Amino acid sequence: MATAAASKSYALPRDLPLDSGQALSGVEIAYETYGKLNADRSNAVLICHALTGDQYVASTHPMTGKPGWWERMVGPGKPIDTDRFHVICANVIGSCMGSTGPASKASDGSPYAMRFPVITIRDMTRGLVALLDGLGIEKLHTVVGGSMGGMQALSLAANFPERAERVLAIATTARHSAQNIAFHEVGRQAIMADPNWNEGNYYDGEVPAAGLAVARMAAHITYLSEEGLTEKFGRRLQDRDSKSFGFDADFQVESYLRYQGSGFTQRFDANSYLYITRAMDYFDLAEEHGGRLANAFAGTSARFCVVSFDTDWLYPTSESRHVVHALNASGAKVSFVELSAPFGHDSFLLDVPALDRVVKGFLE
């Protein structure tokens, strides 16, 4: 395990401007660091987390006790080598692991709940850049992200091109498809249909755990592949009386999804889920830059690496190619690789040795 300092929090000295035209006051950014920053501050690597991720990329999660979500990738001698690099991972604004979000207290002392302003991926990136300013890091060696983290990496490259020498975007997209948005809407409706949601005002009572669990179950299906589900579960039944019938989990895959849903409710805030999924749905890097994706990367000097997986049907390889074509059109230096793995979208989090080699090679 990579050695991490105690979890830190940075208070932004100024209001954070948002794409909505509003500004967020008193913003806190929670983050973790691993490895030492060198004398000229040139070895900093920023890792951007996915939708349900957090800053605990390579250290034990304080709520679940589980290892960091990318511990296999980050640490001494690992592809993102903390003996060489100073790694930073921050919880995005709108989330619920220490950074300012819907559960945070507003100026009146009560949780924002649904009074929290609408946020975008670019707003999240502004928060990350403000953190880098506070840490005195002018230019990153690399910004890395998978899934929503990849959106942030691309957003940083497009909107703050001087802040990163290298950009590694894994299993991601420059905008959501109608199908992506549809899956997210199912999850949001499940949360809002839970009586405990109470229009977002549940912080002093029962949380909408049932709705959030269903949202997580629906989303988790999109992170997997049919091949992976079939290999892991098939149509195998639970180990119980096969003559019984009811609405309990009969198939192993049902039990697995329920486990995923119930565990998720212990560490994530339902309102944060609403806000972050909406931010992902609004993300359209081309629209932000005059309707042409190549414009987003015009004049960039960064080197890019884009990675996709052949079983990822959430953000298929065609989405990565779309980004690569735009980078080529802008004259950027870019490499692209589609990796074979049976795990679907979650492949970037799991044991795929080929990804380790790509990450290590690109950073070095």
From TrEMBL:
<keyword id="KW-0028">Amino-acid biosynthesis</keyword>
<comment type="subunit">
    <text>Homodimer.</text>
</comment>
<keyword id="KW-0012">Acyltransferase</keyword>
<dbReference type="Pfam" id="PF00561">
    <property type="entry name" value="Abhydrolase_1"/>
</dbReference>
<dbReference type="InterPro" id="IPR008220">
    <property type="entry name" value="HAT_MetX-like"/>
</dbReference>
<dbReference type="GO" id="GO:0009092">
    <property type="term" value="P:homoserine metabolic process"/>
</dbReference>
<feature type="active site">
    <location>
        <position position="345"/>
    </location>
</feature>
<protein>
    <recommendedName>
        <fullName>Homoserine O-acetyltransferase</fullName>
        <ecNumber>2.3.1.31</ecNumber>
    </recommendedName>
</protein>
<dbReference type="GO" id="GO:0004414">
    <property type="term" value="F:homoserine O-acetyltransferase activity"/>
</dbReference>
<comment type="pathway">
    <text>Amino-acid biosynthesis; L-methionine biosynthesis via de novo pathway; O-acetyl-L-homoserine from L-homoserine: step 1/1.</text>
</comment>
<feature type="active site" description="Nucleophile">
    <location>
        <position position="147"/>
    </location>
</feature>
<dbReference type="GO" id="GO:0009086">
    <property type="term" value="P:methionine biosynthetic process"/>
</dbReference>
<dbReference type="InterPro" id="IPR029058">
    <property type="entry name" value="AB_hydrolase_fold"/>
</dbReference>
<keyword id="KW-0486">Methionine biosynthesis</keyword>
<feature type="active site">
    <location>
        <position position="312"/>
    </location>
</feature>
<dbReference type="InterPro" id="IPR000073">
    <property type="entry name" value="AB_hydrolase_1"/>
</dbReference>
<comment type="similarity">
    <text>Belongs to the AB hydrolase superfamily. MetX family.</text>
</comment>
<feature type="binding site">
    <location>
        <position position="346"/>
    </location>
    <ligand>
        <name>substrate</name>
    </ligand>
</feature>
<feature type="domain" description="AB hydrolase-1">
    <location>
        <begin position="43"/>
        <end position="349"/>
    </location>
</feature>
<keyword id="KW-0808">Transferase</keyword>
<feature type="binding site">
    <location>
        <position position="216"/>
    </location>
    <ligand>
        <name>substrate</name>
    </ligand>
</feature>
<keyword id="KW-0963">Cytoplasm</keyword>
<dbReference type="GO" id="GO:0005737">
    <property type="term" value="C:cytoplasm"/>
</dbReference>
<comment type="function">
    <text>Transfers an acetyl group from acetyl-CoA to L-homoserine, forming acetyl-L-homoserine.</text>
</comment>
